[in-house]
Amino acid sequence: MSKQWLAVLTIVGGLGLGAAALVKFGPQIEGVNVGKRAPDFAAVNLATGDSVSLKKEYANQVTLVNIWATWCIPCRTEMPAMERLYQVYGPKGFRIAAVSIDEGGIEDVRAFVKEYALTFDVLHDATGEIQREYQTTGVPESFLLDKDGIIVKRVFTHEWDTPVNKRLIAELMGLPADSATAAGTVQARASTPGG
């Protein structure tokens, strides 16, 4: 065997061993799925202008992370239901981190927040890094996290203020199961004329 072939075989063997070592000992890429810890992210809070992170700002709290954009029609449908849910559970400690991925300035996002009278946390990530971290395929996409930061529900466009979701959130918050039904009844009475 010539020296050239020996060199080629050595290089190919070294590359093969390197690839095998990378597969065995390299970083494990896990999917962002139910039962997994939610990835940390940083985004700008529109209300304060501060950069906040999931782990610091929302630690030990049941949190809905919603990834959305002002130009997204399903997002416009979903936001009022999120606000109604927040009105019921926000005072009890439930958090919503609605992260806009709109590129450019935040004036369109601020106008959206004002138009829909949103009172939960609206964050802005112009870089779209959260989409990569959460492996999203579009907007809106939401992740419901328990107090330990574990994803318990991952959905696309969703009606968040249904009785099923209220029960799930009440359960995650450690509230009595009937508080979800009672909260929905009180809200329904308050929204009916003369109620």
Secondary structure layout:
Layout: H1 3-25, E1 42-45, E2 51-53, H2 54-57, E3 63-68, H3 73-89, E4 95-100, H4 107-116, E5 121-124, H5 129-134, E6 141-145, E7 151-156, H6 163-173, H7 177-191
Parallel strand pairs: 3-4, 4-5
Antiparallel strand pairs: 1-2, 1-5, 3-6, 6-7
Task: Spell out the key features of this protein.
195 residues; alpha/beta; Glutaredoxin; 7-stranded mixed beta sheet
Description:
The protein has a domain at 33-158: Glutaredoxin (3-Layer(aba) Sandwich), CATH 3.40.30. The protein is built from seven helices and seven strands. It has helices at 3-25, 54-57, 73-89, 107-116, 129-134, 163-173, 177-191; strands at 42-45, 51-53, 63-68, 95-100, 121-124, 141-145, 151-156. Helix 6 (163-173) crosses helix 7 (177-191).
CATH superfamily of the domain at 33-158: Glutaredoxin
The helix/strand class is: alpha/beta
How is the largest sheet built, in terms of strand order?
2-1-5-4-3-6-7
The radius of gyration over CA amounts to 23 Å
Strand content: 15-25%
Terminal CA distance: 93 Å
What is the average of the pLDDT values? 87
Range of helix content: 40-55%
Main sheet specs: 7 strands, mixed
Shape label:
elongated
> How does CATH name the architecture of the domain at 33-158?
3-Layer(aba) Sandwich
Number of strands: 7
Low-pLDDT parts are 184-195
Number of helices: 7
CATH class of the domain at 33-158: Alpha Beta
Spell out the helices and strands N to C: HEEHEHEHEHEEHH
The fold-level CATH name of the domain at 33-158 is: Glutaredoxin
